[in-house]
Amino acid sequence: VQLVESGGGSVQAGGSLRVSCEISGGTSSGLCMGWFRQAPGKERERVARIDSAGSPTYTYSVKDRFTISQDNDQNTLYLRMNNLQPEDPAVYYCAADFYNSHLARSYSYWGQGTPVTVS
User: Fold this and answer.
1) Is the Cα torsion angle 74, 17, 116, 100 positive or negative in sign?
2) Beta-strand (E) ranges in the chain?
């Protein structure tokens, strides 16, 4: 399974951005898919995930601002980020695994990351 993120960039505080993760070498259906982020000097943290049954969960700091979704026909995972705040800038990573988990260390497949900055 290969993951390629795109869509990162720079936005003003309060703005919106959507990042995408294209999945190849497998299908997103049945996978646990997650978005993680890592800011300089900080540990990688989970942002949101969709489990293998399609149920989304979010970390508290992004709940009601971010939306995770997946298009199984396009084999693509999305993260829509609204009302971006100064604490949101980081490199955003897409991850996948055949087992459901909230922990970064449990995910077997990772993309290269896409940077998001907020000015």
Assistant:
1) negative
2) 2-6, 9-11, 17-24, 32-38, 45-50, 56-58, 66-71, 76-81, 90-97, 109-110, 114-118
pLDDT tops 80 at residue 110: yes
Q: What is the DSSP string of 19-49?
A: EEEEEESS-STTSEEEEEEE-TTS--EEEEE
* Segment 1-32, tens digit of pLDDT: 999 999 999 999 999 999 999 999 877 778 89
Q: How far apart are CA 16 and CA 79, in angstroms?
A: 11
